[in-house]
Amino acid sequence: MQLWIPNKPRLCRYKSVKTAGKLSQAVAAETPSASGLQHVAVIMDGNGRWAQMRGRPRLFGHHAGARRVSEILRACPPNGVKYLTIFAFSTENWKRTQVEVSGLMKLFQGYITKEARALRDEGVRVRFIGDRVRLNPKLVELMDNLEQMTSCNDLVHLTIALNYGGRDEVARATKRLAQDVASGKLDPEKVDEETLPKYLDTYVLPDPDLVIRTSGEARISNFLLWQSAYAEYEFIDTLWPDFTAEEFGTLTAKYGKRDRRFGAVNV
Ligand code: IPE
Ligand code: IPE
Ligand code: MG
Q1: Which residues belong to the active site?
Q2: How many angstroms separate the alpha carbon of residue 45 from the centre of ligand 3?
Q3: Residue 235 predicted with pLDDT over 60
C-alpha cells in the first residue's frame, strides 16, 4: 500500500552528533521508563495570563513560554521519555488578534533560527505536525530545514504542533485515504483502525501515554484526538512559563503508579 509521506526522505547529511551538549550528556542518564512511559504530549497553556499578571503584553508570556521548552526537553531522557510533543499553535488560534498571531509567527521563526544548531547538536530529532498550507513560506522553509538537519538524531523526538487541530488532521487524513481508494491503491474493505492512523501527521510516532495541560483548564482543545484515545491526562494549575523540570519529573513518576487496564481487568 502506498502511503502519504509528509516528511522529506531521510538524508543523513550530518553523520555524527556532537556530544558536548547538556542534553547529550543526559544520554548517560537515559533511563527507559519501567512504567512503559515513552511519549508525553503537552498543551502549553497559560502564557497570556502569566504576562497579564505581570502587567505585560501577551507576547511577553509567549517568549517566556518558549524558553521553558529546552528545560523540559532536557528532563526527558532522565525520566525515560523518548517522545515529547508540544502544542504551539492550534487551528483555532488564528482567531486571536493580528498582533498576537503575527507576533507568534515571528517567535516561531526566531525560535527555529536560534535553536536549530543546538537541537541538532544535542541529539534532538524535530518534527512538525499540523497543516503547513496556511503558514508563511519562509516559516515552512525553516521547519523543513530543521526536520531535515535533525533527521539522524534519536535521543529525544520533539514534535511541534503548529497550525494543528485534531479534527483538521483527521479530515486531511481522510481526504488522502479517499484519494487512495478512488485511485485503486487502497481497498475500502481494508480500512480499519490500523490503516487510518497511517494517514495522520503523527504516523511515525507512538501514541502519547501521558498528556499534560498547564494553566488549570481541563479540556483538550482539539489536541491529538485520535492518538490520545487511551492516554492518561494531567491537568495542572501551573502556568506554562512557570512549569519546571521538577514538576515534569513528578508527573512522569505519578504516571508509573497508574493502573492502565485498556479495557481489560487486571487481576
Ligand atoms: C498558550 O497560552 C499558547 C498559545 C495558545 C499559543 P495562551 O496564549 O493560551 O495563554 P492564556 O490561556 O491566554 O493564559
Ligand atoms: C490550546 O490553548 C492551544 C495551544 C496551547 C497551542 P488555547 O488557549 O488556545 O485553548 P482554549 O482556547 O483555552 O481552549
Ligand atoms: Mg490559553
Answers
A1: 45, 93
A2: 5
A3: yes
Q: How far apart are CA 50 and CA 46, in angstroms?
A: 6
Rounded to two decimals, the pTM is: 0.92
Which pLDDT tens digit goes with each residue over 214-230? 999 999 999 999 999 99
Q: Lowest-pLDDT range, 22-36, 149-163, 169-183, 186-200? A: 22-36
- CA 240 to ligand 2: nearest atom: 5
Sorted by where each starts, the structural domains of the chain and their CATH numbers stand as 22-165+206-255 (3.40.1180.10)
Percent of the chain as helix, strand, coil, to the nearest 5: 40, 15, 45
Protein residue with least CA distance to atom 2, ligand 2: 45
CA of 251 to the centre of ligand 1 (A): 21
The interaxial angle of helices 98-121 and 137-149, nearest 10 deg, is 20
